[in-house]
Design a protein that fits this description.
Layout (H helix, E strand, L loop, with lengths): L1 H17 L48 H5 L1 E2 L8 E2 H4 L18 H4 L13 H5 L17 H12 L11 H12 L2 H12 L7 E5 L2 E8 L3 E12 L5 E4 L2 H6 L7 E5 L3 H11 L8 H4 L17 H13 L5 H10 L4 H13 L12
Parallel strand pairs: 3-7
Antiparallel strand pairs: 1-2, 4-5, 6-7
Helix pairs in contact: 6-7, 6-8, 10-14, 12-14
C-alpha cells in the first residue's frame, strides 16, 4: 500500500513539474547516435547484429592452459584468503576475498539460481561482486532499495527490461538468470544487496586527452598507455585503477578511474540540481542526497556507464517497467550530451559515510 501511495505521489510530482512547458514532454534527440561508449563499443550497431553468448562458468584446466599457472594460489593485500585463477573465474562458486565487507552470502549470491545448479549458473556475486559494487559493464546493486531490485528482476523476467545495443552479451545472461530465479531468490538477493551501504570507489577526472585505451568489446576500457594522448571526444571512459587486481584477481576493493569531458561536471550539476529548464531536479525523486527514496534507486557515486545505459535504454523504450515509465517524461527533452553530463556529475557525487555495522 505504501509503495502504491509513493508511486502515485511521484506521478503527481512529475505531472506538475513537467507541465511547466510542453517542450519538456516532447522527445528530442531520438535520432541521435547511440552513446556506444556506455555499451563498451566503438562503432554503432548494424542491422542484424546480435550478441555472442557468454561462456558458462568452468572449474577446470582448459586446453592450451598452463596447469601450474592456472592452479597457483594467489593473494590480495589485506585478505587472508588464497585462491587460484581457476577458482577466481568459476562464477558458479563465487570467491570472497573480504567476507567482513558484507553479510554472509546466501546461495543465490554465491552459486546462482537453484534451478541452474546442473548448468552451473552464475552467482549474483560473480558479476556484481560480493560487495554489490558491480563493474562498468553491469549494475551496482549495493544499497539499492529492496523493492526496486525486485522490480528490476521481475522486469527482466517479464521482457520489460533489455538493451538498446543487441551486441551486449551480459544483458542476455542476466535476463536468463532472472527467468531462472524464484520469487524467494529475488527477494533474498535484493535484501542481501540492500544491506550493504553504498560507498565511493571511483575518482572522476575531467580531461580532453586520456592515456591510450584498449577496448574489450562489450566489456570495458583497459588502460595501456601512460601519457594522455587519446582524445576523449565526448565519451566517458571507466577503467580499472589496477587491471590485474580488478580483472585477473577480481579484487572487489580495487577501484576505478572515470574520465569525463571537460565542462561536463558543471553542466551536469546544473541539470541535476535545477533541471536547467529541460527537466526536473533529480533530488525530487531520488532524495536530496541522491541516495534513493522508498522504491526509487540511489544514483550518487554510481557507474556512469551503467547509468547512461539506463537513461538511453529508457529513452529508446527498451526499459518499459514502472520506474522507466516514470522516468520517460523526465528524460524526454534531454540530449545524449545532456545525459552524459548528468551521469558524469552523478559519478562525482560522494555518498555520505555510512555508520559502522557488524558486517564492516
Amino acid at each position: 500500500m505504501k509503495q502504491q501511495i509513493h508511486v502515485a505521489f511521484l506521478g503527481a510530482i512529475l505531472t506538475v513539474g513537467l507541465s511547466v512547458g510542453a517542450s519538456l514532454v516532447q522527445a528530442q534527440g531520438s535520432d541521435e547516435p547511440e552513446p556506444v561508449w556506455a555499451y563498451a563499443w566503438s562503432t554503432q550497431p548494424d542491422p542484424g547484429d546480435t550478441y555472442v553468448p557468454q561462456l558458462p562458468p568452468v572449474r577446470e584446466v582448459l586446453p592450451g592452459e598452463d596447469a601450474e599457472e592456472i592452479t597457483q594460489m594467489r593473494q590480495v593485500e589485506g585478505s587472508s584468503a588464497t585462491y587460484s585463477r581457476m577458482e577466481v573465474r568459476d562464477n558458479h562458486n563465487v570467491i570472497d576475498w573480504f567476507p567482513g565487507d558484507h553479510p554472509p552470502m546466501p546461495d543465490i549470491i554465491q552459486h546462482g539460481p537453484a534451478s541452474l545448479v546442473a548448468e552451473r549458473g552464475r552467482g549474483c556475486g560473480s558479476c556484481h561482486l560480493p560487495n554489490g559494487k558491480g563493474r562498468p559493464e553491469n549494475a551496482p546493486p549495493a544499497g539499492q532499495p529492496i523493492a526496486y531490485t525486485i522490480q528490476q528482476l521481475q522486469d527482466m523476467r517479464d521482457g520489460l527490461r533489455y538493451t538498446v545495443d543487441p551486441r551486449k552479451p551480459n544483458t542476455h545472461t542476466m535476463i536468463a538468470l532472472a527467468k531462472a530465479m524464484t520469487d524467494e531468490e529475488m527477494r533474498e538477493s535484493a535484501e542481501y544487496f540492500a544491506a550493504i551501504p553504498w560507498t565511493p570507489w571511483m575518482r572522476v577526472i575531467e580531461a580532453d586527452l586520456i592515456p591510450e585505451m584498449h577496448l574489450e568489446p562489450g566489456n570495458m576500457y583497459i588502460t595501456v598507455g601512460t601519457e594522455p594522448t587519446e582524445p576523449l571526444a565526448g565519451r566517458i571512459v571507466e577503467t580499472p585503477e589496477d587491471e590485474h587486481q580488478a580483472n585477473f584477481l577480481r579484487n572487489p576493493r580495487s577501484g576505478w578511474v572515470v574520465y569525463v569531458p571537460v565542462g561536463s561536471l558543471d553542466k551536469g550539476e546544473d541539470l541535476v540540481t535545477t533541471g536547467a529548464g529541460k527537466t526536473i531536479q533529480c533530488g525530487i525523486c531520488h532524495g536530496p542526497d541522491l541516495m534513493g527514496l522508498a522504491n526509487i534507486p540511489g544514483i550518487a557515486g554510481r557507474s556512469p556507464s551503467y547509468m547512461m545505459r539506463q537513461l538511453y535504454d529508457m529513452k529508446r523504450g527498451t526499459r518499459a517497467g514502472l520506474s522507466a515509465q516514470l522516468m520517460q517524461p523526465v528524460i524526454a527533452n534531454l540530449t545524449v550530451d545532456d545525459m552524459t553530463a548528468i551521469v558524469a556529475y552523478l559519478a562525482s557525487v560522494k555518498p555520505p559515510t555510512p555508520a559502522p555495522t557488524d558486517a564492516q
